[in-house]
Amino acid sequence: MSDGAAIKIGYIGLGAMGGALARRLVGTHKLTVWDVNAAAAASFDKLGATVAPSAAELARQCDIVLLCLPRSSDVRKLVFGPSGLAEGLSAGKLVIDQTSGVPAETHEIATQLATSGVAMIDAPVSGGVAGAAAGTITIMASGPQDNYQKALPVLTAISTTIFRCGSRVGDAQAMKLVNNVLSAGCRLATLEIVAMGRKMGLSLAAMTDVINKGSGRNRTSKVMLQGLVDGKPSASSFAMSLMLKDMNQAIQLGMECGAPTTITNVVRGLLQIGVSTLGESAQLEEVMGLIESMAATRIVNPSEAAAAQPGTTAATVETKDLRVGYVGLGTMGGALTRRMMLSRKMRVFDVRPEVVHGFESEGATSAADLRSLARECDVIFICVPTSAIVRDVVFGKGGLAEGLAPGKIIVDQTTGDPTMTRSIAADLQKLGVALVDAPVSGGPRGAAAGTIAIMCGGPADSYATVQPILASISPNLVYCGQTGNGHVAKLIQNAVASCNRLLTYEAATIAVKYGLRLEDMATVINKSTGWSGASERILPALSEGKATADFQLQLMAKDLKLAGRMAMDCGAPMLIAGTVRSLFEIGVHELGGTANLDSVAQLFESMAGIKFAGA
To answer: What is the model's pLDDT at position 302?
Structure first.
């Protein structure tokens, strides 16, 4: 037996999470356990562990004692109450608190234990019971270096994914609260928005595919929603009341250090409604039922088959022979056009002659006007700021309609209004012209790299014709059904991505005000349940002020307004996304509509009186 294995280890708190963590120590260390639930302790007796008669006796027998209890108040009672740990602890021993607790209370407990020569660190976890059982769970640890080093061999037996979050006892618990702000916030925001999408007629499969291929991806979309689509729902084994407790503690932490928790307050309110209506024993995954009842819909409909994908049968005209034009060569439209120019000759039009000349120099053919472009092309792509401009491009004086003929197809890549898109499609149908809406998600960088997600709606035969052309931009295509559904899917994707982004800024604000380092936060969160596409891009760049987006603030505010109107029209609450939209509106007024999306960070800095730079 190695020296590490000779260390006598104790574990108290053998619930769903604590029990899974403690089982990782069976066989690697001499383990003694205790729990107020005698049956939970007895199950470890069968595994070869020793069951102590009391917490105090466990403390006498062990060199290192790990705790995993519901609340910091429970830890204090266990340590200093009758027959508590303190009665058996002596100088040189170490307590490792794996509770998701209150940093200040944990720090006070550590200070009090230190007077008796007993050391303490906090080491909460993120990754769920399944992650604990598999040994892949993320452990966040903090405390003095020598105590951390002493705990490391034991923690490594639980999981090798360990991050030290600071030298102060309580720093790791603060990090865990910040992580759970993101974990719970992204979960509820995503479910609210998806519920709205279901009411708008989109399938869960299509929405999940869109979100996961775009910037809205997060742990909820990747694990929970994908599991539902695959018929393999995941269980958290985590009580909703415990996540509510964590939100209360996160808001309390924000209050103590002066960090606003505008979005987290809404998340907390939804969880409180869930606990109040479903009961203290309700599991976290049951929050989906709460969201469904609030929106009067079903996110998962057992009778609904996955959205049918149109066939890939060859079109009547060889795709390579189709003449393709593009209207709108702005930041996004230009990037999409250049991507298609890699595989075909393009005809282009833009109201700015200098932009058109630039594309001519790269090999494109310019059209004299919209009428000429329509006559010269079989498929015409459009990417302009709004659906109103799309209508003007098509039906305005000198517009495309004057050169269109039956059998031609218009592909609208604008992030537009689904209702207006369907109206335009109906008017085009009178001319024998089909419309496919195919907005994108992933930004100009994604367009240039060929990784952008494209959400498509429209007649299946028309989509089949243009699908190879769209695939030349990116293979990440999702067919969402009828005309307008591509735009609905894009608004859903942008709403989820916006919630992810602002939740990331809010969590970072709490972290910085408390005193955590953004570099540590980026490392921990992106390996934990708080991960999202936003945290992945923003957190590593925030301290250095690096760009993560190339999109105007007013355009995202426009998209969120459209999503908000859809929610009103179909009767979906969307509380979190509504709050996020309001914050974007403030940002537009305070920072200017043409400001980059990254500038929203300044709004959070101003509200909290901090600077992310160098934090």
So the answer is: 66
In the chain, the amino acid numbered 372 is S
- Please return the burial class of 245, using the count of CB atoms within 10 Å of its CB with bins 0-12, 13-18 and 19+: buried
The helices-and-strands tally (H runs, E runs) of the chain is 28, 18
Residue 78's identity, in one-letter code, is: L
pLDDT band at 329 (very low <50, low <70, confident <90, very high): very high
CB–CB of 418/567 below 8 Å?
no
Q: How far is Cα 219 from Cα 329, in angstroms, rounded to an integer?
A: 35
3-class SS letters over 506-573: HHHHHHHHHCCCHHHHHHHHCCCCCCEHHHHHHHHHHCCCCCCCCCEHHHHHHHHHHHHHHHHHHCCC
Q: How confident is the model at residue 1 (pLDDT cuts 50, 70, 90)?
A: very low
Token digits of residue 461: 């035969």
| 3-class state of residue 125 by DSSP | strand
* Closest to 325 (Cα-Cα) out of 267, 278, 394: 394
Contacts of 420 (CB under 8 A, 6+ apart): 387, 388, 390, 391
Count CB-CB contacts under 10 A for residue 423: 14
Phi first, then psi: give them for residue 105, nearest 5 degrees.
Answer: -65, -40
Give dist(CA 398, CA 552) in Å, integer: 29
Q: What is the pLDDT of residue 235?
A: 82
- Asked if pLDDT for residue 471 goes beyond 60, the answer is yes
Q: How far apart are the C-alpha atoms of 571 and 196, rounded to whole Å?
A: 8
**Residue 68 to residues 16, 122, 152, 584, Cα–Cα distance (Å):** 10, 10, 17, 39
Using pLDDT thresholds of 50, 70 and 90, give the confidence band for residue 314.
very low
Per-residue confidence (pLDDT) for residue 317, from 0 to 100: 52
The first and second tokens of residue 489, run together, are 């899917």
pLDDT in tens, 332-357: 999 999 999 999 999 999 999 999 99
- Kindly tell me the burial class for residue 298, based on how many C-beta atoms sit within 10 Å of its own C-beta (0-12, 13-18, 19 or more): middle
Contact 198, 299 (CB under 8 A): yes
* CB contact set of 60 (below 8 Å; sequence gap of 6+): 88
Residue range 177-234, pLDDT digits in tens = 999 999 999 999 999 999 999 999 999 999 999 999 999 999 999 999 999 999 999 8
Exposed / middle / buried, residue 365 (Cβ in 10 Å: 0-12, 13-18, 19+): middle
CA distance linking residue 532 with residue 550, whole number of Å: 19
Per the CB < 8 A criterion, the answer to whether 476 and 213 are in contact is yes
C-alpha to C-alpha distance for 508 and 181, rounded to whole angstroms = 10
pLDDT band for position 318 (cuts 50, 70, 90) = low
Report the C-alpha gap between 87 and 93 in whole angstroms.
13
Integer Cα distance of 271 and 287 in angstroms: 8
Are 413 and 387 in contact, with CB atoms under 8 Å apart? no
Question: Over the range 21-54, which residues count as b (16 or more CB within 10 Å of their CB) and which as e?
Answer: bbbbbbebbbbbbbbeeeebbebbeeeebbbbee
Question: What is the secondary structure of 559-615 as a DSSP string?
Answer: HHHHHHHHHHHHT---HHHHHHHHHHHHHHHHH-TTSBGGGHHHHHHHHHT---TT-
What pairs with residue 411 in β-bridges?
A: 381, 436
Beta strands per DSSP E along 357-503: 365-366, 379-382, 409-412, 434-437, 440-441, 453-456, 477-479
**Three-state SS across 2-64?**
CHHHHCEEEEECCCHHHHHHHHCCECCEEEEEECCCHHHHHHHHCCCCEECCCHHHHHHHCCE
Higher per-residue pLDDT: 586 or 310: 586
